[in-house]
Amino acid sequence: MLNPTTAPVPLAPQSILSIRGLSKSYSGGPRVLDDINLEIAPGEIFALLGPNGAGKTTLISIICGIVNPGEGTVRVGGHDVVRDYRKTRSLIGLVPQELTTDAFETVWATVSFSRGLFGLPANPAHIERILRQLSLWDKRDAKIMTLSGGMKRRVLIAKALSHEPRVLFLDEPTAGVDVRLRQDMWQVVRELRAGGVTVILTTHYIEEAEEMADRVGVIRGGRIVLVEEKSALMRKLGRKEMVLTLQEPLAAVPPAFGLYDLSLSGDGSELTYVYDSQSERPGISRLLEDLSVAGIRLRDVTTRQSTLEDIFVSLVETRS
After folding, report:
1. Per-residue pLDDT for 147 more than 70?
2. Do 70 and 100 belong to one domain?
3. Reduced to 3 states, what is the DSSP secondary structure of residue 226?
4. β-strands 270-276, 262-264: how paired?
5. Does the pTM exceed 0.85?
6. Edge to edge, what strands does the sheet with 270-276 contain?
7. Sequence-separated (6 or more) residues with CB below 8 Å from residue 86
8. What phi, psi does 295 have (nearest 5°)?
């Protein structure tokens, strides 16, 4: 079992986002965030996962200067989010989960206006580049109210990128978006990272984190319970299942196979063997030999690797 993160481990000479000892409570109530320590490297894609009420929104709101921190420090690009609010806010782009846009404005006007809010001069070339990158160029003169939900989501991303931030927060970026547009947006996020933008996303779509993230953080009850490189997490906590379809059903798992982690399906037609994917000797060959000696004949054999969703559910249940 992995221990909760209790101390930051720098990933680069200077992290783009550094959170140390951050805690937050409202009106003397219980802590919404409890001793959060986190370091985000420049140019990485970081996925923050957690159940509803885990503290994800509060954490993002503090980083973005929407909510005041309680205890601890938060730095963006080396600047304190409280003392250097204007500087840190200029480094951050935020795409909220809610589709909050001016329904009667055009795409071009609302994205350009967002840039102006940061005191930056007009830059039509930059706005055009963003709209083309997000496949919004053909909709530049369309009013927001006429767009689909997926297109409105893209407009929110364009608004967040209008002032050329170094860090982009995506809060449930593909909620309400169909599968094709979701995959298009994954590609957009990769392109942003390639351009040097650090992307931090919260998502309920586990496959989204599995597809895009370099690292995964899990937050529960206001505490970071795990931060791990995605590939290392899959190796460390992943498991494999081998499903053995039998030629003849069994009434029960034979006592001689008690040393194996075997379970029998309800109809007795399948045995499932669970083993560590990193084990040098998972015992598959020995199991198959023992089955043959016992006269248990197989019709088919399939394997399944655990997904990030399996791991996430396991982590949450373990710490509940």
Report:
1. yes
2. yes
3. strand
4. antiparallel
5. no
6. 262-264, 270-276, 239-246, 298-305
7. none
8. 80, 20
